[in-house]
Amino acid sequence: MAELKQLTKRSENYSQWYNDLVVKADLAEQSAVRGCMVIKPYGYAIWEKIQRQLDDMFKATGHVNAYFPLLIPKSFLSREAEHVEGFAKECAVVTHYRLKTNDAGDGVVVDPAAKLEEELIIRPTSETIIWSTYKNWIHSYRDLPILCNQWANVMRWEMRTRPFLRTSEFLWQEGHTAHATREEAEKEAQTMLKVYADFAEQFMAVPVIKGVKSETERFAGALDTYTIEAMMQDGKALQSGTSHFLGQNFAKAFDVQFTDKEGKTDYVWATSWGVSTRLMGALIMVHSDDNGLVLPPKLAPIQVVIVPIYKNEEQLAAISEKVNGIAARLRSMGISVKYDDSDNKRPGFKFADYELRGVPVRLVMGARDLENGTLEVMRRDTLEKETLPIEGIEEYVQKLLDDMQQNIFQKALAYRNSWIKSVDTYDEFKEEIEKGGFILAHWDGTAETEARIKEETKATIRCVPFDDPNYPAICMDTTPGVDMVTGKPSARRVIFARAY
RNA sequence: CGGGAUGUAGUACAGUUGGUAGUAUACUUGGUUUGGGACCAAGUGGUCGCACGUUCGAGUCGUGUCAUCCCGACCA
Questions:
Q1: CA A68, CA A79: separation in Å to the nearest integer?
Q2: How far apart are CA A8 and CA A458, in angstroms?
Q3: Which of A162, A186, A253, A452 is deepest in the core (most CB within 10 A)?
């Protein structure tokens, strides 16, 4: 149950509360299945908020949802050479379709007679099964584009797992699009990367840097992989979402051709893009403090919790009357409210408990407030408390939630930017990489140099950043230089970091 | 798959040279409390991961086995 301790690396203070958080806040716990994850109700509620928002953004960019099979014939995977090389090592394989009672009669064994002619693999990603399907859907330019997304689980038999960041089974969405032209497909891949970046920054309040992956880090089977890279509180990078321009690789592997307006046939151009429950890991690792989770209001399952403090039933009744009105008005404004009038926990316990869960705003009303017509407002991000009149509290809370969303993002942004550095020499690089953060350095563009740096420092190239006026100037430095290791010419600085 | 560690109550742990299992917390009951994780009293709960062995006797020693965690390689 050490996932939050693991995720946050704040062992000293966290050891005091992470067990409580995991147990009571129902975030998640490791199941008995190797590297799999139980996402308990409260954690899942956060995932649902993420899902809903992303789904809206996909629909707004013209996409529709579909669903494809969990099991993929083994032979499909090997159609695309790079793809199979990338995923073959981590596939769970289905070899039989039946069990039978064992000879002793006290258990079951795999029935050898039920061996499959061709083994099935549990999808590690769905490109192959989807493109084998698209072959039947696409004949003409009139059939294009196809803009499908699927919400699903996938399985990758990783050597080593980490809660949220790398579980063997995980939930995600994967978009798979088919286009008539290269330009349209490239534009799609860029568009979806922007959707991811907007979601991360505006909803998760996690600042990210968009960029393109080096050849080594590219998705197996893609021509280009675009990424959003986030910085955790411990100075390690986290790839939080990727969008791939697949070229015609999968169309060729599955023979998906179409006839264009001139009557010529050509292979279809493709993209795929995905984000996973890893985003929840990012959310936890970027914002949490020693009191527990800090959720951006836009993703908090409970945005406002109201706690009454009372000595007897009459007081509770009087408080509840006031609170019910406030809660109803807040809900009518689209704010999710929980009124916790349970009498089996003391107020102090409730305060601490909702802080662990990251509930953005807490309202407290007691006898004192009843008399004065006030209530206490606490904001989770700064833990500041103030006593305000009941009159107009709804508008105040609404504004506060907006302010907090901004504040949490700005805080994370300032923190992230403080982790961005630039170095000129390899010695300097080795020194800085130990401290963590994004490090901009010159690179000669070769896989050999990249591999050597990874071998010697454990740092990888996170991306070649895209031009964005909001990024620190240091990221946008496109002046040529020389590689810090080999001294060969370098077109521009790229981002290195140690990563999860 | 290599290196290291750990398996004891729901959870987190202690258990000395082998002598028949304990602390905290949680849970149940009763009472007093309630503006920052309450207190008092009583109570429930464990064939000590599993198997075999050594021994009069094993949580403790030995062998095997399974599982989990950490560090690598691999990866989103």
A1: 18
A2: 20
A3: A253
CA of A336 to C1' of B32 (A): 36
- Separation between the CA of A428 and the C1’ of B57 (whole angstroms): 65
* pLDDT single digits (tens) A125-173: 999 999 999 999 999 999 999 999 999 999 888 777 777 888 888 899 9
- Tens digits of per-residue pLDDT, A380-393? 999 999 999 999 99
Report angle CA A457, A460, A462 to the nearest 5 degrees.
150
Distance CA A310, CA A312 (A): 6
CA pair distance A189, A184, nearest whole angstrom? 9
Q: What is the ipTM of this complex?
A: 0.84
Nucleotides of B strand lying within 7 Å of any protein CB atom: 1, 11-12, 33-38, 67-76
**What single-letter amino acid sits at A137?**
W
| CA A63 / C1′ B3 distance in Å | 48
Question: Exposure of A170 by Cβ count < 10 A (0-12 exposed, 13-18 middle, 19+ buried)?
Answer: buried
Residue the block writes with tokens 């549990």: A122
Nearest nucleotide (CA of A278 to C1'):
B76
pTM for the model: 0.93
Answer whether residue A312 shows pLDDT above 80.
Answer: yes
Kind of pairing between the strands at A37-39 and A438-442: unpaired
Helices in A177-245 by DSSP H: which ranges? Answer: 182-202
**Which three-class secondary structure string do you get for A23-75?**
HHCCCEEECCCCCCEEECHHHHHHHHHHHHHHHHHHHHCCCEECCCCCEEEHH
The DSSP element (H or E) to which A394 belongs, if any, is: helix A393-417
| Superfamily of domain A420-497, CATH level 4 | C-terminal domain of ProRS (3.30.110.30)
CATH annotation of A297-403 = 3.40.50.800
Beta bridge partners, A374, equal A389
Q: What is the pLDDT of residues A212-258, one digit of tens each?
A: 999 989 998 999 999 999 998 888 899 999 999 999 999 999 999 99
Topology of the domain comprising A3-73+126-287: BirA Bifunctional Protein; domain 2 (3.30.930)
CA A320 – C1' B26 distance (Å)?
Answer: 30
Domain layout of chain A by residue ranges: 3-73+126-287, 297-403, 420-497
- Report the SS3 class of residue A475: helix
